[in-house]
């Protein structure tokens, strides 16, 4: 490489300006990940308020309106502020490294898609201090309830517009990078699975985010400009909001899980020291899940009142998702089968992902059964279900990815002992936190309430103890990350014994610019070769 | 055009994105303050809008300069083409949400309010006298709305506008042929025709809106028919405006001689966008005005 010719490329403005004006995918990946971590703690502190209030029946610490603001904001911050930006951060760091690209396809737009987020979340979080408080009608923003929000209402809508714009530009950048920036030898069916899952995720984002933008615009005009989209008196229908919202909302949940599938498909072969079992079937399963995600939306609204044919259609189409998901689960297990397994921290997260995500998947199947869902709708069973897939699924996938690639990013090994402590505490506390919520939901405890009947007290206390424990455990993670950035033993280029892929062919830490010339793919350079 | 073997052009430190974020934030916070009746809302909006204009001119100007200096190889060109395709796809989905609202109202919610299907209780208990119809003029409860006197006719201005937009699709293609065959005069004439037809479309639509507001009393507040009519045609008109601005920039760049038969991404992108706007109009004409 002729680094001297392009030496000006490394010119960075001093201090903080570097991070504001950077067009480097590694810098922007770091910004996304740190932003996601900050939001993870802001959203997490809101959940601490929720779990503290729910430790006992009756009202202890919050009034009901503030409690509902906490549930609403917790969801918005975690979904749009923590999980999605964390995955985009991983994509920014890893996709160019994994496909041998010099950077993202649109480096300037990459900067913009990140730098919209701090403004969007400042707008959203500022609503906590407005007359009438933050939005409290649930993150799903169902009318007519959400139209009763105070001054916060337009700020809620516009912050969602901004987040959508950020996601959309991020997704276009990622999809174009994957389609156009691969090193010439790498055809689509040679791409690492993390890249494949992100290709599909980016497609879902481009298809779903504009629908969300459209439907919240309808809310805005209904509130301020006299339109009657969701007003039956003018010929509209509040249920229509739910249809359009969930047409976005269901792809959205796969947007938050598919990249985690990619992470797990990357980690397990490394520590099982075997190629990924069934690479092609993994690709087809990912694409099938993406397709199905567009025809299952109404399973979120079985009790709202729909024609019987629709109830049946959405029940069966939802159950169909279990097939490609099952393919994935069995492929991960088969990859581990008779592998030379070791259990470093990333592998622990990946294995726990397979087990706990499956639990979330099974409770999802229970919820898919329309008649049963009439019982489960709006109970803690739903809360337990989506926290199993989103926390022990998506978030654990992100943790696994961070431990797996942190040595590549920083050049230092993290503290393995502390990593394991973080993992085991998270496992114990998250199950203590979420598993009892299944029992509470089946016994009939509704979600989004600050107070409950006395018979629910025991499991709520267990859940709250788990919640506070899980929250405190994450401080260990912050300590590990910043300790690794500052110190720690030097990491080699190929950090893990069984790690295969282009990202391991560059030194650790990865230089500021990598693959300025497209690399040649060496024999055995791709994880799934040999299958 | 540079050869394909050169490196992919990577821009360095850029101030445009952060300026764009500040502009967007000012624009939206200003609008929110305006809507909630707080002070300095409109000032903030104008400020944000100006910053956005500055940012867009500056950013696109930078890209045009980079392109003219030959910094972009064919791979960069492919990135831009892919990017524009996916952007248009996202716009399709955005319009899809509003068309979904239209079809939901026409096929489901209005007939249900009129007593059809299994959802008859709203009809029975709330508005037993309501009769479903489309275009919906007699609302279930007219007290909150300004009832329209008549629906918008498909014949007349809308039909004329269909003809205008279809002709503009033909003229932009004619200009494209000229660009590829290096017939400069035909390129310029074709683009001027296209932009003029676009502006004529917008002028006629403005006239039609005035007719709707003043004579038909048809507005966004006239129930679901007026709501879908205004929102769909309004967003479409906004997109025609954006497309016309893009074509005007392309016209200016054609006059400056920026394009070559092989390198004219800006022209292609604007033409694709124009065709997309055209297709949306055909759907609008069919389902909003005609059927």
Question: Brief description of this entry?
Answer:
By secondary structure, chain A is mainly alpha-helical. Chain A has helices at residues 17-21, 25-53, 64-99, 107-126, 152-180, 193-224, 238-255, 258-272, 279-292, 308-320, 322-336, 345-368, 370-376, 380-410, 416-442, 457-486.
Fraction in helix of chain B:
over 70%
CATH T-level topology of the largest domain in chain B: Four Helix Bundle (Hemerythrin (Met), subunit A)
Number of helices of chain A: 16
- Which architecture of chain A would the CATH scheme give at its second level? Up-down Bundle
Backbone shape of chain B:
globular
Describe this structure in words.
The complex is a heterodimer of chains A (about 525) and B (about 290). With about 525 residues, chain A is mainly alpha-helical. Chain A has a single domain, classed as Cytochrome c oxidase-like, subunit I domain (Cytochrome C Oxidase, Chain A). Chain A has 16 helices and no strands. Chain B folds into two domains: about 60 residues, Orthogonal Bundle (Helix Hairpins); about 170 residues, Four Helix Bundle (Hemerythrin (Met), subunit A). In chain B, about 75% of the residues lie in helices and about 0% in strands. In chain B, α3 packs antiparallel against α7, α5 packs antiparallel against α8 and α6 packs antiparallel against α7. The N and C termini of chain B lie far apart (about 50 Å).
